């Protein structure tokens, strides 16, 4: 079951299991999770549970809602995401496995859009041949219990693979077209649009 770990100055204050479809966070003592901090709005953010997914929404707060140090208005939470509200850090933990993620993320290759610049192709298993378009800046596969991979697009337009998804983990790899990696029992191949590949190989003096 999904869980929130509320932390202050690296100390765990409490663990909250998401048993209802809506959880509110804010300074107001009527919030489901009360966070007494002047920089946190009375009604700061809400988490809505829809089937297996949990969506974090900023409620027009004064000082914004952060996930992994980035300001968000609405965000699909993934295992290991760190929500930042004022001086509090709230870690989202989920047992959702790769199969549920593939159900949500994959497309049949016939639905491939010519506008996709990069994608992952599944090489084996019952989803072999399907693709995951890398439309977002960050894709999470797996969870931290069984092994997690993050595929991220850098500001310069390159793609990197990060293991485990923790802020302190430095095991990263720059992805090149054709690179293979595994998450649980599934093999993925990184693919880049051919014109982009040529652009990256072209000399800056051409």
From TrEMBL:
Signal peptide extent: none
InterPro entries named among the record's database cross-references: FHA_dom, SMAD_FHA_dom_sf
Domain FHA: 23-72
Listed CDD domains: FHA (cd00060)
Name under which the protein is recorded: FHA domain-containing protein
Lineage: Bacteria, Pseudomonadati, Pseudomonadota, Gammaproteobacteria, Thiotrichales
